[in-house]
Amino acid sequence: MVHEALIGLVFLPLLGACLAVLPGRFGTRLAIVVGLASLPFLLLPVTLSVLREGAWFYTLGGWSAPLGIRLYVDPLALLMLWMVALIGGLAAAHAWHDFRPGTAAGERFWPLWLLLTAAMNGLFLSADLFNLYVCLELVTLAAIPLIAMAGSATAVRAAMRYLLLALLASLAYLLGVALLYNSSGTLDLYLLPDALATAPAPVTAFALALIGTGLLLKGAVFPLHVWLPQAHASAPGPVSAVLSALVVKTAIYLLYRVGLWSLPAGLLADGAMLLFAVLGAGALIYGGVLALLQDRLKLVIAYSTVAQLGYLLLALPLASLAAWQALTYQMLSHGLAKAAMFLAAANILHAIGSDRLSDLERLDQRTPLSLFALAVAGVSIMGLPPSGGFLAKWLLLEAAWRGGQWGLLSVLILGSLLAAAYVFRVLAAALRREDPSEAEDAEGISAIGRRQATYAMLLALLALVTGFAAAPILELMATGIPPTWGAA
Amino acid sequence: MNFGWQALPVYVVLTSVVTGILIFALGEARQRMRTALNLAGALVKLILILVMLLAIQTGASFEFRMPVLPGLDLLLHADRLTMLFATLSALLWLVTTVYAIGYLEQSPNRARFFGFFSLCVAATMGVASAGNLFTFFIFYELLTLATWPLVVHRGTPEAFAAGRLYLTYTLIGGVLVLVGLIWLTALAGSGDFIVGGTLAPIAAGNEAALRGIFVLLMLGFGVKAALLPLHSWLPRAMVAPAPVSALLHAVAVVKAGAFGLVRLIQDVFGFELALALGLTDLLTWLAAATVIYGSVLALRQSDLKRRLAFSTVSQVSYIALGVATGSALATIGGLVHLVHQGMTKITLFFCAGNYAEGLGVHAVEELDGLGQRMPVTSVCFTLGALGMIGVPPLAGFITKWHLGAGAITAGAPWVVAVLAASTLLNAAYFLPLVHRLWFRPLPATMAARELGISGRRLQALVGPTMIVAMLALFAGLLAGTPGSPLFWAQRMIGDPA
């Protein structure tokens, strides 16, 4: 039963993608139910089994590794799958109104969306470098047309740029995988450490460097982030939300898998972690400063993603339980908050026809709920209490303090002050009243607009709730700590 | 976790959160409903607090604990210090709400205003009932967030500039608290607030670290308490509407900072340890300097609200001064001033709001002869001013008497000189105002000026002003009777349970 559920997580969205291609409303609606609404129900038994028995492998078709293909589910994978189900689900609910099933736009949109979901789920479950390559490629190939679907020239240009760089990244990754296979004889992530111990070191190092570069490029890690801001800012609202909350995280997730599960401990691993930390610090500061300089709301949020991805790399050299909990919790809370912000920004753009900061005045009258969602999510992005972002930052700071990492500590603080600056800059722009005597305009929001605002608010509230209900999630994450960081 | 009777402090916080959310949800147009909600929320909270007060008298205790992070709990409880601050806040919130409803009548964005007003009070209640520093920090930051929309409420460039300054100061203050707190947690875990503190057993060998932690936390709380040199945001924040200023100065932000300092000395370090580490001297000197500096600057202000703001800078430091001086009497003086300053200062701000709304008076020079035009407001203002100066038997006198006597028993007679100087300065910047109100002739232009607001609205403003003035008056007059703020402060120090 639980095995079927695990396979269903990948195959039902895939089936949905096929169904969505069928003409007419009915196929698409069925596809959404089969491929998206089913996910939480599939996840429940899987979650229970991981809670009861810990992480486990599932061998597809009974062919055992190294010959066969294995799926692996552990707390980290579970967290990511839940994020796909919840954040992806709410974003899909938001998208329902802009890309109605049965319309021309809807017919193009939903197959891609379902394919993206299937590819992400597959990626989080695969235990095999080649399968991971396929999933990673599918994620990119599904995401790019979704960006271009915004239709504007900027969006198409951004999508093209993303496509070219992503192809480059895939090539680097694939080359690295081929080299690794040649020298170690296995593609299984969790068999690699032993196999690599006997493989020639320079080849391994080169292969891993290629894989790492590919992933950093796909993960938009500073200074390889150049494609991200325009792509995330010009995509349609729900696509932006999923891109920032989930899609870039797929590359970071793989980076964790390769770096923390497959890399034999030693000089190479230490060097890599240090490099990641430096890049993370750069991302946090650079992204923060650039977010502060943007004059469009969606660009501010996109650069904020560049900055926040830095948190996910910064703490890697700490290699402690607290650091692991902090990283995973940051994954979750950033996903929730960022998706809320992008959905809210989409609503604002929709309602007033512009997302220039100079046009945002009196938003508290014009789009109150969306602005509120933006503000509540912003609290989490700033890392202020009460929010999931605060708890993640607290854990990071505490881990950094205990590890005596003063540099890291100051970067973290500087980063959160920058975040406060760019979030409050947006909020100040939204509360402005150009002319104090100006009459109040009635809320010009349709029923659909109100529903779409509710989805943004729900995500923001989830980001707020994660500021309180952390204990069970963190306990689960503690059981999934990477083997190189401590005993599971 | 226990959500029953014991968890009453949670419900006290939640009443304001729920009120705030409902007000946001109602929207701008439904004014009657909003007013009813506002008053109901404030009343329910006050009743809950009175119930808690009575229960604590009979020996009940309240505690709500929820684990948030490994080793860190969200802890809300109700000790005597909590009740002192919470009662003050709940009482003044009710009055300020009534005042604000009258004050903001017909002005835009009232739903937003009252929504954040409620959240602000929720945060204050959380600050009051926080049972450890981690919880305190959560609500302390929440207070920053909830207050900012109130500071920038008018939406003018000036308001946003003040808001930016406010955020810069308070967020950096928040970072200082955060770093101090992380350090403390790494060193000693997260201890609950207990009179006498929890750090004494680990002090040996960690003196330097503890000093560092204390200084970080002191500066962090000092930002909101407007300690020298971290005070400059406060006078600028005067651009906010009068009820916000009143609340900021009397109950919410400034008091949260001062309250943090009290908790820090009494319940985290414990006075003995802070004294042994030489930390109380630091705070005493800083507070004394702020008392004098604030008064001197108040003298120079010609804008009424700015003069009151600098007066707050000075007066709030009495609290830190008393607690840092440390003898029983001085501590009582500091704690009781938490209440006395709140009641007195809110009276003065309401009066300033009345003058501004009624006759458009903002500058000190324009007060001439206003005793004839607005007699009730002027009587209240005079009471407040005399109370601040410390004329017996008003509230300020009770404070200063305890502070002075306490300083002598603590062996710090120089504090008495500070108090004397401050009193002279208080008199120097308040008495001329009183003189102007009653003994200068009313200029013809002012006599001819129409009241800017309707008679009914003026009543809505003057009524709450009278109530707070009475509260301030009785806090001083009846200081010797059971139930007075002084009585509570004495119970707290005399019986350190």
Task: Name its key features.
heterodimer, A: 488 residues, mainly alpha, two-stranded antiparallel sheet, 2 strands, B: 497 residues, 21 helices, 74% helix, globular
What is the global morphology of chain B? globular
Please compute the radius of gyration of chain B using only Cα atoms: 21 Å
- What is the SS-derived class of chain A? mainly alpha
Q: Kindly state the percentage of residues in helix of chain B.
A: over 70%
Overall residue-averaged pLDDT value of chain B: 89
Largest sheet of chain A: 2 strands, antiparallel
Biggest sheet statistics of chain B: 2 strands, antiparallel
- Specify the number of helices of chain B: 21
**How far is it from the N-terminal to the C-terminal residue of chain A, by CA?**
26 Å
Percent of residues in helices of chain A: over 70%
Oligomer: heterodimer
Total strand segments of chain B? 2
Largest interface: A-B, 36 and 38 residues
Range of strand content of chain A: under 5%
User: What is the count of β-strands of chain A?
Assistant: 2
What structural class results from the helix and strand content of chain B? Answer: mainly alpha
Order of helices and strands of chain B: HHEEHHHHHHHHHHHHHHHHHHH
Widest β-sheet, arrangement of strands of chain A: 1-2
Classify the beta-strand content of chain B into a percent band: under 5%
Stretches of chain A where pLDDT is under 50 for at least 5 consecutive residues are none
